[in-house]
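Budget justification note: compute hours in this period were largely spent on complex prediction jobs such as the one shown. Inputs:
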Amino acid sequence: MTDEEKKFEQYVNSLRFEDAPSKEHQDKLEKQLLEAYNQRQPAGDDSVEPVSLYLRKLSIAAGFLIACGVLFWGIDKAFITRPHPDFIANHPERETLEKIIKDEQATGAAKKNLIAKMSDIWDMIKNKDSDALVSVLGSDNVARSLRTWAAEHLGRFGNKQTLDMLDNTILKLGVTDPNDPLNVAASQIRKRLKLPEAESPEQSETPSMKSLDE
Amino acid sequence: MTGTQQASSAGLIEAARTDKSAFSALFRRHYDEIYRYCARRLPERGTAEDVTSQVFLKMLKNFDSFTGDEVGFRCWLFRIACNEINSFYRRSARHSKAMDKLRQQSRQQDTAADETSDPENQEKIDFLKTAIGQLQSNHQDILTLRYFQGLNSEQIGEVLRMNPATVRSQLSRSLKKLKKLYRLGQQQTAEEIFDYD
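Corresponding output:
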């Protein structure tokens, strides 16, 4: 115990609390307790829970869990996953997005899904999240027109590091199409940073082939 | 409590499960201590009596599920008391205006009834209770069990189901907070009871 704790203890002990118990209250409470004691079930009577009661408790717990699940699902659908209903209408690139929807011929659930992806990609563009956008560009699960849109934006702000990531992805996926969104973004960044165009795998193989022929 | 008393107490708990008079004896053995603890933590006598009643009624309700010796029983009672006191303060926080009025009325009644009361002592107690009331509820429990009831870290740990080392560190932290509150509100007392760093 520190000196300060000792001093504080002495200080508390020096105070005179008005804490004397009242005999009247004690007797009244004792009487009340003894009445309740008589009414209580003898020990052991409720030690084994009847199966019906157990099942009832279980069903209440299961119902509660299901209700919570539905509530969370509803909240997620209504406010989290689902983009704002006016996402397209208020979007600065409304025409482009509407064209993408038209090109993809998306309706019903597919349209909702496409808009949700647009909203996600737009968040990445706003946050200049190059890593996420590169992975979107290399994903087969995202519509090509949507990836092209993302590629154009990435081309506007991507830096040397983004270019390295894009080149790695292009190499890894073996992308040869110059119009592929990955190549579009890489090419745009090169132009903007005034870097020389990358050699395609075929081009880089040519000199060695030539030397072999010779 | 001596060894013989403890042994007889353990027997008393077992007897109290089926014997009304043993239960009555068990109640009388612990009533004073629990009441005093409640009275020191709560604003006025009536509230302390109500909370004490709640503590013992809860004890009776759950008595059959209690397994342990007399030391464990005492700790269990203090745990119920801490929970009931904290629950009282949570409820009264929602009705703070009504509480202030009640406290004021009660103080006027107490002063009128006891002309020998020492206003300086009362002021110190009021400040101590208010300052403790501003701490987190677990710090309030630890501090009051230690300084109002004289329980050690192991016993407090058993009451609050905490590690004694955690109790010691939280006790030191809560005392530091209390020191700050004293420096802000009662400079003179702070100088008397706390070191200046």
